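Subgroup meeting minutes
Present: P.N., E.W., G.H.
Scribe: E.W.

1. P.N. recapped why we're keeping a running log of single-chain structure predictions: easier to compare across weeks, and new members can see raw inputs and outputs side by side.
2. G.H. added today's entry (415 aa).
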Amino acid sequence: MNSNTELLKQLKIDKSHKEAPGGRPPWGRIAAIGGIVLVLLAAGVGAWAFLGKRPIEVQAATAVAPASAGDAGAVLQATGYVTARRQATVSAQITGALTEVLIEEGDRVAKGQVLARLDDNALRAGLASAQASAAAAHANVTQNEAQLEQALRDATRQEALVGRGLVSKQIAEQTRTQANTYRAQVNTSRRQAQAADSQVGVAQVNLDYTVVRAPFDGVITDKAAQVGEIVSPLSAGGGFTRTGVGTIVDMDSLEIDVDVNEAYIGRVQPAMAAEAVLDAYPDWHIPAHVIAIVPAADRGKATVKVRVALEQKDARIVPDMGVRVSFLEHRTEARAAAPKGVMVPSSAIVQREGHEVAFVVADEKAHRREVTAAKPVNNDMRLVTAGLAAGDTVITTPPDSVGDGTPVHITQPAP
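Output recorded in log:
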């Protein structure tokens, strides 16, 4: 009790800080303190706005479709691209201006089908001139043949008169010589007519070159020229001359080229069974087999190219598509279906508010997705049966600061 009384006595009012004269508070000091507070608030708001808009750096991975049970027998996997063994950039065999282009990308064409036409006025005139020259040559042959026939009759008649003593032998010999001369002229005119006919053939071939035709059945994958442009089989005229009209691909010749690390090329054998999965259709497993192992290595990449044949052709398969090939020990007739869902790294799934969630990156922002996931596989991957789709880019080990709509920047490309 006494201690409490002592404490109360020690309480004093410090009057050393007196009010301003007239009992008014020190407004200058209050204004200064208020200004400092406002500056601090403004700086805090600015820092919050800057940091709130600054993207958070994260690492990411791509959700992929799970492998099927049939992949269990794979001795090796490799990636590559769909290629066409037969494709051609079609061009004209002469230089000329295009008057018609009859193709568009995606058109199916048959062998011999007209793809384009060039201006042929000059060549048609040349063909007409050659035909006229050939006609004149043949007319000359006819004239010489007529003269030869007359000369032969005259020679026969003169020889008969010589036998009867009515004309001299010299006259009969001159008539025979004249007939032989006409015979030589006939042979010469016939050769000239043949040459004229050959010129007509050349002019016709050049005229045919103004029509560009498909060399084989296929699909147009590129239209390289338009009406009015000049095309040439050579790159003459710089950038103003096209060297091709379009590109045609024989879709029946599609196959796969994969690069196999040379350390594992011994596992691949010719005619070996394989299975191909296109990146665009991860749930579609295409039977395949090895065509050949190209006997050359890439020194820079330490790989060997392997050609793989597709045993099923489909319109969805187009050149330059990415593909993953599994080389199999043996082909299984009955293959268990792949589990539904996608595979993602285990670190991409975190607990938020009692739910398992993953963050998908789209438009440089994180989007929260509640997921249904199975137990981890190989302590690294998890099967997500709901909430994600194949091809989604998910953040691995998302920090607590990442939420729905948070701007993010991927520092590690998604595999």
